[in-house]
What we know:
It is a single chain. The chain has helices spanning 19-40, 46-60, 87-97, 137-153, 171-182, 203-207, 212-218, 231-247, 280-289, and strands spanning 78-81, 159-164, 188-194, 197-198, 201-202, 222-227, 252-257. By secondary structure, it is of the alpha/beta class. The chain has a single domain, classed as Thiamin diphosphate (ThDP)-binding fold, Pyr/PP domains (Rossmann fold), CATH 3.40.50.970. The strands form 2 sheets. Strands 1-2-3-7-6 form a 5-stranded parallel beta sheet, sandwiched between helices. The longest helix is centred in the first third of the chain and has 22 residues, at 19-40. The model has no long low-confidence stretch (mean pLDDT 97).
Amino acid sequence: MNEFLQFDNITFENKKHSISELKSISLEIRRDIIKMLALAKSGHSGGPLGLADFMAALFFDNYMKYDSSNPNLPSRDRFVLSAGHLVPVLYSILARAGYFPIQELSTLRKYGSRLQGHPGLDTELPGIETSSGSLGQGISIAVGMAMSDKLISKNSRKVFSLTGDGELQEGTVWEAAMCASNYKLNNLCWIIDNNDCQIDGRVKDVMSIYPIDEKFKAFGFNTIEIDGHNFEEIRTALNFFEENSKSSSKPTAIILKTFMGMGVSFMKDKYQWHGNPPSIEQAEQALKELI
């Protein structure tokens, strides 16, 4: 393995961090993503890089309840990655949280690896709550989880689920939205990654889903739109959900305005990097920028 593709053995605690600490964590996650994909020679680069900031705050800034030493803790909050192709960012998060050895990141998409190209329960990888990747299905499962927690178990845990903006073109997504509102699932936080990029071009050109905020408001959600690379705004949004989960009967939608390929100059805001990995040479260039 090339020396610059080695993984540092650094884990992060789930506690309140300074903004500078969160920026350092998100940089480490971006470096992981580049290294994983270069070694795998396949996978999705742009979306995972764009989500590193939000995911760093969600998992490491004391917003989610979890215990990596006890992945099936009954009181844990759950995270469902509905846009399963974005999984490199989740694998990095889980490894850095201590769910599995960091060096296992080098096995992404390899034969026999637990780190498949989409999250899979069949691999028994700790921290994965459900198989996903067929767009529109993960968020539907997440709504079912939130219904079970609120209406049957009547517990206080929360469900976070992330969809891409192109995923909103799926009809099942809006059935899930209607259901979440109808059953007053204030324990559900729906995160939408709005980078306006999908595999064939700009979302607004392929099949526009705008205005996203007005649609979610019409479906009965507490809705907030933020800069997905600004940690102050990310905290504001997560606090917005926390407060609404106690005082409102509505589910929450957080719309992240992000850039595909954030942090890497030749990838930033280019939809062509939706489903392409960097070459070894491109990875070396990207890692020089991610410092």
